[in-house]
Amino acid sequence: MTTKTRASALSLFLCLGLFCIVTLHAQVPSKPDVILKGTISGQQNNSYVEAPFTVPAGIVSITVTFRYTEKEQHTALDLGLFDPERFRGWSGGNKDHFTISTTNATPSYLPGPLPPGQWKLIIGVPNIRQSVTSNYEADISFARGTSTVSFADSPLRTGPAWYRGDLHMHTAHSDGSCLSQSGRKVPCPVFLTAEAATARGLDFIAVTDHNTISHYDALRELQPYFDKLLFIPGREITSFWGHANLFGPTEFVDFRVGTTVPSIQSLFEQADTMHAILSINHPNAPTGEICMGCGWTPKETIDPHLIQAVEAVNGGAEEGQYSGISFWEKYLNQGYRSTAIGGSDNHNASSPAGTRSAIGSPTTVVYANDLSVTSLLDAIRKGHVFIDLSASRDRRLEVSAEDGSQKAIMGDALQAPSDSTIQVSTHVVACAGNQLRFLLDGQAVPSLQSTIAQADQTIALTFPADGKKHWLRPDVVTPEGKLILLGNPIYLNYTEEQK
After folding, report:
1. Averaged pLDDT, 277-303
2. 3 located within any domain
3. How many structural domains comprise the chain?
């Protein structure tokens, strides 16, 4: 997340009638920017109290957390908000915190521009006893500039683990459709995609509707209910010369390449500035009238250092001429480190009775510190990812390589001097009867192939190093050679600058 720019330390204490305002320009991001404190007395029963605060320019989201005392005395305080120009929402007593941003807002509140100036927190007093005085406090936090956004207040699961998800799908907010209750084809609502992903046992999804940001409001509404399924903010930037998924921020990004946007290269530069991931989608797909703009055909050469991820496996083209694997490996062979991910590209969340939804096929499996947007995106950048083309719920591919005191997992770099021996350990789950293979710079290594005999097995192999720069990555294939699991590389003798 981009570090917030904060003004110099300043405290301003104002006593206005029955409440006080304390403005804090904190150096620690977890501290609120504004704290509103005040009291409500019994004489204010059945009235509305205004608590003004100032919003500076350049704010992209506002989060309010509200608490008060004397609830055991049946005190009830309601909550609402006005900006300098209009009403922005009323949650009454059903929420103690909310977020409002330019693109989405907690239900009860309206997204939209956040004008600088004096805003008002409205405190309704439906009940307070005549002899009671209630103390309230509202913590108000501002987000500035561009940042990775989460619709969840905290990680949905804690602790390092392999988390399974789908990074490419569409809903009614672009060209996703499904059958209505009466059997008509209609734009498919977001909640059906979330339900299908939950039924598939996924841990996360990214809804990536074309060029729009309207689906974020629906995702923020759904996230508290789907508290086992994390929503990653995403959209598919669709140009006439290729498509790419943008993960992380929610603010509008201009997609009009060749008109208001000078080039696709400039989109990657903007994503880098935003600390977002911009992943090239289905790069080997056909383009033209058969699929307008689907293939990757930019007029200019994109700086490969900016290409953090490639959709190597798209749901409709897992293998064959339209697979993105060869496109991705071309960058690997040029010495660049880009992460292979997958996505179903699902456009219909419903499925006929007795069949399985295409959502989660393929599954992108990410080893992250916890189930949060920040941790997942960081892990994708690092390449701690494999793709499950079989869309199973339990297959696993964990690889580590050691040379002396060094150890690396998929996506990491390992310094392996000439004449040293690399110890490769592979943990595979639910793959019995299939073959483990390793590719060195795209070519299979006969000495690094093994039959998987057990449902849960660790296979130890050795590989002689030559001191040169290589990429070494694992796959699991059927005895007939069909790809089941695709792993990201371990990079031998790469420098940190070659990420």
Report:
1. 94
2. no
3. 3
